[in-house]
From TrEMBL:
<feature type="domain" description="DUF2264">
    <location>
        <begin position="11"/>
        <end position="365"/>
    </location>
</feature>
<dbReference type="InterPro" id="IPR049349">
    <property type="entry name" value="DUF2264_N"/>
</dbReference>
<dbReference type="Pfam" id="PF10022">
    <property type="entry name" value="DUF2264"/>
</dbReference>
<protein>
    <submittedName>
        <fullName>DUF2264 domain-containing protein</fullName>
    </submittedName>
</protein>
<dbReference type="InterPro" id="IPR016624">
    <property type="entry name" value="UCP014753"/>
</dbReference>
Amino acid sequence: MSLPTGNRQEDRSLWLEWMRRIADPVLTSLAARRLRADMPVESRGTDRADYTYLEAFGRLLVGMAPWLESGPDDDSPEARWREQYGELARLGIDAGTDPESPDCFNFTQGYQPIVDAAFLAHALLRAPTELYGRLSGQVQRRLVKSLQATRSRKPHFNNWLLFAAMIEAALYRMDECWDPMRIDYALKQHEQWYKGDGIYGDGPDFHWDYYNSFVIQPMLIDIVGTVAQESDDWKRLQEKVEARAVRYAAIQERSISPEGTFPVVGRSLAYRCGAFQHLAQMALQHKLPPDLHPAQVRCALTAVIRRTLTVPGTFDDKGWLQIGLCGHQPELGESYISTGSLYLCSTVFLPLGLPPSDPFWQGEADWTAKKAWSGQSVPIDQALSR
């Protein structure tokens, strides 16, 4: 396979610009303890104000975390931004776990807190130094207590099992008391729900949507990668999980059209480019299929970012995300969707955790669909046999 030539650092600049635009209202308001006062709550549901603030923060950080954790610590503009946003994130954790704060998050009422505490926990796995290690001891203790409080929430019998498992994986990483049973149950149940060719069911049934990317495969990879050494059967499972993840990354890349669009199927389409968290994570972790050059994945994801984040109506006049896939489309918001939910789009930016010198940021290359529909040579697609 011929490698692309040239340099496309302007793509990295574009990604940074859009990630910062998405992050600014959430992080600056929460750091000032004004998130509830400043953030609108757009939703068809009647109770989303109980949950939307933790949603916004956890889902934003889960995409920003690898960039926050990366270096180098120099005097470049990007390094200064990284330090600035890391400090805002730590102030946000302080504000969200302080019982005296007007922005103290809900970790214990209703079912939803287990979901967004898990996204926050996933961010902690992705940036353990910046988002946990640099907190004061007092804030660390409050954060641990908040995560442990979600054990009173009963997850649904579907991808939600991974939320409980992710919280325990984060507690394990923080060297706190953790429950291996919650992890074991989620991992073994998802093994039962594997449908073949790189795809898991969302519970016992198969749903044609993007939840393999929103939740299932990214969390499976990082949970089992965190705790595999604690159990021989988890080590054996890790190999299968990673092989399936490679296949699903191939499917995701092939689903991006020459124009940067993708099939409008399934629920939670208002997460926009977050539908490609899995592909972004596989690029971040250097686990892409061997016939995918990282640059073609970058070019494909850049096209998706442009199609989902640059359309008028994506943001309101104060910079907050609005419900929609391409612009403002409130009809695409299920009853559980609210303003805070939308920040899962940040997960497309995971490869910002790679240094500018990484092959992901070098050169240009057409992605598979763009090659195929312009008459270029493309490799034959092959199913995964296990």
